[in-house]
Design goal:
By secondary structure, the protein is mainly alpha-helical. The protein has a single domain, classed as Orthogonal Bundle (Hydantoin permease), CATH 1.10.4160. Helix content is 76%, strand content 0%. The relative contact order is 0.19.
């Protein structure tokens, strides 16, 4: 039997796992979430959530992967014969498929705008109407978005085909430092602008009066989703680890890098936006319509715009790589397919499903069964709000009732000289995680059925 490929170094693994966590949401969603929900007060709550809920589930998935040296489905099969746990492996693999199908569409947008910036096609934008028209016309086209989406996916396929050491780890070691450097450069540029202090106040001033139960749920939800939990990614990445790794410290480093990048992104964006007299918004409209105009007001605007969209492209790529690896590793482990065959076939399937996502935004083809939602938004909704919380909840319950906390501690304490974990403490953490994730899931289902939140709207 062929030996399983492993990460070449601890740094390579940390950068790859951090790359999976660092995605488009870090660049536009998290900073706006912080600014609108209490600034530094929200950040403090988020940090508590990510180190309690996020870290515990992250470590559980890494342990499940390393213990079995298998991807999600095979890992649960090896550790338990109960169908519920094996189902969670399939659910994680399916979640990765669903997320990647719409994620590659946005990845294609980042690639398109990187080229537009590089060759100066955004230089003459001077009004929001003009910028919105370019973006909306582009995503409404039938064929051009498909070209950029497919190009983005082909790059992802290329990285995955080359394996763990020469593919994922190699490119993560290049892209993650580059992402950090570019963000720091953009943040310094923003801090040097007159009026940048208003952006810092907007982002970091603690506003405890803005903290509501809804804010806490947002912090809980984002701490869970940002780390790629519940989708089999960390189980797959953990399966390429050897027993020499200190999982606790690696997990902490992953969380620190993810949070650091999100906060620096907030500094880079909001200092620039406020210094130039604009107003922050959330989502793709802000990134692809407002920011190009703002960059044009800077000296060397084309350079800063190109740097930003290149950064955005790499953040999207590191996440898409981890998502495709979940599916590839399943067919390599369970079906004994070659890595090349698995990657090409299912990369191609993702491209096709992604086409339906793209065409639902204005290309004249929306196959969503719900008339008021696009197929693109449907795939986003069912994965982020339902599939991932179910997966995360089952991971916590698996550790408590099937794998057992004592075995979790034994695996985690291996090569761990940081501190020795107490069984009652770990059981408490996983119990809290189960309750928290379960509440998020119940709240989303209730909101779907009733149109309102259990805790009330913000």
């Amino acid at each position: 039997m062929k030996n399983r490929e492993n990460w070449n170094s601890r740094l390579g693994f940390i950068l790859a796992a951090s790359g999976s966590a660092v995605g488009l949401g870090n660049i536009w969603k998290f900073p706006t979430m912080v600014a609108e929900n209490g600034g530094a007060a929200f950040t403090l709550i988020y940090l508590i959530c990510i180190f309690v809920v996020g870290l515990s589930i992250l470590l559980a998935e890494l342990i499940i992967g390393r213990k079995t040296q298998l991807s999600a489905v095979g890992a649960y099969k090896k550790l338990s014969k109960k169908k519920m746990w094996v189902f969670n492996g399939f659910l994680g693999t399916l979640s990765a498929d669903v997320i990647l199908s719409f994620y590659v569409v946005v990845g294609g947008w980042t690639l398109k705008y990187s080229f537009l910036s590089l060759f100066g096609f955004l230089n003459n934008l001077n009004s929001l109407t003009q910028s919105e028209s370019i973006f909306n016309n582009f995503i409404s086209l039938r064929f051009e978005p498909l070209f950029w989406q497919s190009s983005f996916m082909l790059i992802t396929i290329f990285v995955i085909i080359n394996g763990i050491k020469n593919g994922i780890e190699k490119w993560s070691k290049i892209m993650m430092p580059f992402i950090i450097i570019l963000l720091i450069i953009l943040a310094i540029r923003g801090l040097l602008l007159d009026g940048s202090v208003e952006g810092l106040k907007f982002l970091f001033n603690p506003k405890f009066d803005l903290i509501t139960p809804h804010s806490i749920v947002l912090a809980l939800g984002h701490s869970f989703f940002t780390l790629s939990l519940g989708m089999g990614t960390m189980v797959a990445y953990g399966s390429y680890l050897n027993n020499k790794q200190n999982l606790l410290m690696s997990g902490i480093w992953i969380i620190v890098l993810d949070t650091f990048i999100a906060l620096v992104a907030g500094i880079a964006i909001f200092t620039t936006v406020f210094a130039l007299g604009s107003e922050p918004q959330e989502g793709a409209g802000f990134i692809f319509t407002v920011l190009p105009i703002i960059f044009n007001q800077l000296i060397g605007g084309q350079l800063w715009s190109t740097v930003f969209f290149t950064l955005l492209f790499m953040a999207a790529l590191t996440s898409s790589i981890s998502l495709l690896e979940v599916v590839t590793s399943y067919f390599v482990d369970e079906r004994k397919w070659s890595r090349k065959k698995s990657t090409i076939i299912f990369g191609g399937i993702i491209i096709i499903v992604g086409m339906f996502c793209s065409l639902s935004l204005g290309g004249g083809l929306n196959i969503s069964p719900f008339k008021n939602i696009t197929f693109f938004n449907l795939m986003d909704l069912i994965s982020s709000k339902y599939m991932l919380p179910i997966g995360g909840l089952l991971v916590s319950l698996f550790i408590i009732f099937e794998f057992k906390v004592s075995n979790f501690i034994k695996e985690l304490n291996h090569k761990n000289s940081f501190f020795i974990l107490n069984k009652k403490f770990v059981l408490l953490i996983f119990t809290i995680s189960s309750i928290v994730v379960g509440f998020i899931l119940i709240n989303e289902i209730y909101s779907l059925l009733s149109g309102s939140s259990i805790i009330g709207n913000k």
